[in-house]
Amino acid sequence: MESSASREHAAAWGETTVTKPKVVLGVSGGIAAYKACELLRRFTESGHDVRVVPTDSALHFVGAATWSALSGNPVSTEVWDAVHEVPHVRIGQAADLVVVAPATADMLAKAAHGLADDLLTNTLLTARCPVVFAPAMHTEMWEHPATQENVATLRRRGAVVVEPAVGRLTGVDTGKGRLPDPGEIFEVCRRILARGVTAPDLAGRHVVVSAGGTREPLDPVRYLGNRSSGKQGYALAKAAAARGARVTLVEANTGLPDPAGVDVVHTGTAVQLREAVLKAAADADAVVMAAAVADFRPATYAPGKIKKTDDGGAPTIELVRNPDILAELSADRALPGQVVVGFAAETDDVLANGRAKLARKGCDLLVVNEVGERKTFGSEENEAVVLAADGTETPVPYGPKEALAETVWDLVLPRLRERTT
């Protein structure tokens, strides 16, 4: 039976059903407002009940009729419309998620300082659900100290502020500040709703994730590499972003699109990946080394393609060891209490080799899984056992790599709390 509280919740929204997740899509006045139509479509087609709350300036880019037709709900910018329903309070109270896309520099400033001069800013103040901001603006505006302080304030309060993408901006400008792909924004929101928590538990944290497989050049056309697709590392980065963390993803040769809300550093070799990871780890609360880093590289690089010889022989390739990034991170932590997580891909004696590697590397957690030509590499699924330095072991059954990613962060989180309290 529907409770009176549920009926009030539905009435405040203007609907008679309470079965669909209720999402407020705030739209502020930037040229990227048209992209929010695609985000709205993804929400409605996946069964969400969406109330669009644009600002007055947003309506210069996309009209109220479009938002109303696409959402099936009334659209207003004013706190004075339908006053008897107290919309400036009820819309935020009834929401399961509020996402502002695009979020202009002006909107971020208003939200950070608690201003409430229209329906959207009032909704942000009354919302007690997760709030996501997807910024879009010119690079200079994003990088301005005032904007960065406002973003830091919002994150500290528990809001998820996704990092803007790098690309073409208004006019001929190119740089960081482009609205992330609507599909990526939707993925962040989906993960937040699926977890069913009010506040992101990694808010205010900076985490570093490595992904992919390094390639060690032999000559201009050949390299030594491995089969890693980077999908597990990307799953870890996306999960951390949805949990409110500032995420730096150091990738090697994945070819995957940059996930929304994540700073991505592209590398190729083990030496390049090491440099990028150590730089990013300087202020990181946790580092997760999911990349498959080559243990060896050719001792010399041939400036021209190595040719076959007439005698039928094959060249001898001398190898040298690459730096052990995981051991280096574990032995020389950039910050007191920094949590370090490693991955161990094994083909036999999986747990025995994993336990030995955990002791040898000195990390806090080691994710151990069995690999092979038809196992894990390139797959959307994974299974593993997470070994901890304290002797505990957490098996993760076969399933989506997203599930393993969530388990890893679930295990990292209490270790962060232990070391900072």
Measured as a percent range, the helix fraction is 25-40%
Measured between the Cα atoms of the first and last residue, the distance is: 45 Å
In this structure, how is the largest beta sheet organized?
8 strands, mixed
Strand content of the residues, in percent?
15-25%
Describe, in plain words, how this protein is organized in 3D:
By secondary structure, the chain is an alpha/beta fold. The chain has two domains: 4-195, Flavin prenyltransferase-like (Rossmann fold), CATH 3.40.50.1950; 206-420, Rossmann fold (3-Layer(aba) Sandwich), CATH 3.40.50.10300. Helices cover 35% and strands 24% of the residues. It is built from 14 helices and 19 strands. An eight-stranded mixed β-sheet has the order 12-11-8-13-16-17-18-19, with helices on both faces. A hairpin with a 2-residue loop joins strand 9 (216-219) and strand 10.
Could you write a compact summary of the structure shown?
With 421 residues, the chain is α/β, with parallel strands linked by helices. It is built from 14 helices and 19 strands.
Key features of this structure:
single chain, 421 residues, alpha/beta, Rossmann fold, 2 domains, eight-stranded mixed β-sheet, five-stranded parallel β-sheet, 14 helices, 19 strands, globular, disordered N terminus
List the helices and strands and how they pair.
Blueprint: H1 4-13, E1 22-27, H2 36-45, E2 49-54, H3 64-71, H4 87-94, E3 97-103, H5 105-113, H6 119-126, E4 131-135, H7 139-143, H8 145-156, E5 160-161, E6 165-168, E7 174-178, H9 182-195, E8 206-212, E9 216-219, E10 222-224, H10 231-242, E11 246-252, E12 262-267, H11 270-280, E13 286-289, E14 296-298, E15 319-321, H12 325-331, E16 339-346, H13 350-361, E17 365-370, E18 381-388, E19 393-400, H14 401-420
